[in-house]
Amino acid sequence: MTEYYIPTGHSETEFTEKRSRFLGQVWRVETEEEARARIDETKKRFHDARHNCWCYLLRDPAVERYSDDGEPQGTAGQPMLEVFRRVGITNVCCVATRYFGGVLLGTGGLTRAYSRSAKEALHAAGISVVRRWVEVELTCPYRLYERVKLEVEEADGLPVETDYAADVTLHALFPEGKVKDFTDRIAEVTAGESAPVVIGETLRDIPLQECFNG
Questions:
Q1: Which range of residues forms the domain containing residue 69?
Q2: Ramachandran assignment for 192, one of left (phi > 0), alpha (psi -120 to 50 degrees), beta (any other)
Q3: How many CB atoms lie within 10 A of CB 198?
Q4: What is the model's pLDDT at position 77?
Q5: What global pTM score does this model have?
Q6: Measured distance CA(76)–CA(97) in Å, rounded
Q7: What integer pLDDT is reported at residue 209 of this predicted model?
Q8: pLDDT tens digits, residue range 77-93?
Q9: How far apart are CA 56 and CA 176, in angstroms?
Q10: What's 137's domain CATH number?
């Protein structure tokens, strides 16, 4: 089953470490050209900053790039890259901008600060899972709707659309491999009054919090 993790959206965070300001940004990107464009935009926006350190990771084709942008070698871009590697995030670009505050942080302090900048920016951006989903449609009487919705959630399904007419029609997405058990369960709990129908498959991203709440 195809499954990987990407940022949900763009984020911008800031903190101060010994008078140096660190501005972290994360974007979802699909190509090196897009990543480079984000980096160039940031360098122009924060042209007066001492450093604009960056990294990006792409899934297809597999690419990893980073830059310390004048910081001591190995203290910025690579630690940022490692943040995304550790949690399995791909198709991501991150820039950490530093306005120097006059106090040297040392190599250990720099590594911690740039890692923190990447972590906080990723947390603010959110994480989505990309996987193949099976779309299911099922119609049920109103009196069974809440029970059916609960069963969708119990089966790791995500309701995406509900139509209210003479009966309720629910569209939901399920991870591959979950549909048969769900179909059998619905037939049991509704005594055959609702029959799920598979209407297609799609590869799409869903925020992890929705998956967990789903």
A1: 3-125
A2: left
A3: 13
A4: 97
A5: 0.81
A6: 10
A7: 67
A8: 999 999 999 999 999 99
A9: 30
A10: 3.30.70.240
